[in-house]
Design goal:
The chain is of the alpha+beta class. Helices cover 60% and strands 12% of the residues.
Length: 120
């Protein structure tokens, strides 16, 4: 499964917020302005379905309800593994070391992480 583009992620975020699914027009109307052309969004949806990110249910004639086939949690978990693998040899510790070394994480945040570990 590939990484989502910004536009695909925007569509998936809408579907994740609407787990019962949406018709194409409903999904399109939820997109922020300026909207990409309706036919282009339809192509994105078709591609996302081919790649296993979404599924559809026929609700009569040529009407379909679209739903996420992959949960946001599962997608984020997969992307996290991919990121760690590409940049930190799959090591969470190497990632945390990098954050500390580059001063991108504060002492307070580290203390919060330690508390999380102790409470787990």
């Amino acid at each position: 499964m590939k990484e989502l583009t910004n536009k695909e992620m925007e569509l998936m975020e809408i579907l994740w917020r609407n787990p019962d699914g949406l018709m194409m027009r409903e999904l399109y109307d939820m997109l922020p302005e300026p909207r990409t052309h309706f036919n282009t969004i339809s192509t994105f949806i078709r591609r996302l379905e081919e790649e296993g990110f979404i599924r559809h249910e026929a609700i009569g004639g040529r009407l379909f309800r679209y739903q996420a086939a992959l949960s946001k949690w599962d997608y984020e978990k997969r992307e996290q593994k991919s990121f760690l693998g590409r940049f930190f040899n799959g090591s969470h510790m190497d990632f945390v070391r990098h954050l500390v070394k580059e001063e991108e994480i504060s002492k307070e945040e580290l203390e919060e992480l330690i508390q999380l570990i102790h409470n787990s």
